[in-house]
């Protein structure tokens, strides 16, 4: 059997990129959050200037306590809820 001319150029054994390396994001007009954070949403509050505030409770070490963070989204309350429900 004759040896191949270029033995290391096989494309059949190359690894294809996986989606696990890329974080999935929920995109709002002024901010993007990870989909993993959607399960930690505590409340969504409508603000007077047609914006929405989203409150998160993120667990700390060993689940004994939590950290509260809030995000102001420049989008109407109804549109924000549609995006959150579509991506959850």
Provide structural commentary:
- By secondary structure, the chain is mainly beta.
- Helices cover 12% and strands 32% of the residues.
- It is built from 1 helix and 5 strands, in the order βββββα.
- The strands form 2 sheets. It has a 3-stranded antiparallel sheet with strand order 3-4-5. Strands 1-2 form a two-stranded antiparallel ribbon.
- The radius of gyration is 22 Å and the shape is elongated.
- The termini are far apart.
- The mean pLDDT is 85.
Strand-helix topology:
Layout: E1 25-27, E2 32-34, E3 41-46, E4 52-59, E5 66-73, H1 77-87
Antiparallel strand pairs: 1-2, 3-4, 4-5
Short précis:
By secondary structure, this protein is mainly beta. It has one helix at residues 77-87; strands spanning 25-27, 32-34, 41-46, 52-59, 66-73.
List keywords for this structure.
elongated; 1 helix; mainly beta; single chain; 88 residues
């Amino acid at each position: 059997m004759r040896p191949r001319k270029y033995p290391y150029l096989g494309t059949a054994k190359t690894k294809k990129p996986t989606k696990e390396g890329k974080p999935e994001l929920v995109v709002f007009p002024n901010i993007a959050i990870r989909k993993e954070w959607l399960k930690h949403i505590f409340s969504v509050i409508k603000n007077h200037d047609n914006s929405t505030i989203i409150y998160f409770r993120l667990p700390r070490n060993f689940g004994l306590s939590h950290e509260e963070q809030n995000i102001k989204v420049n989008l109407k309350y109804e549109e924000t809820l549609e995006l959150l429900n579509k991506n959850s």
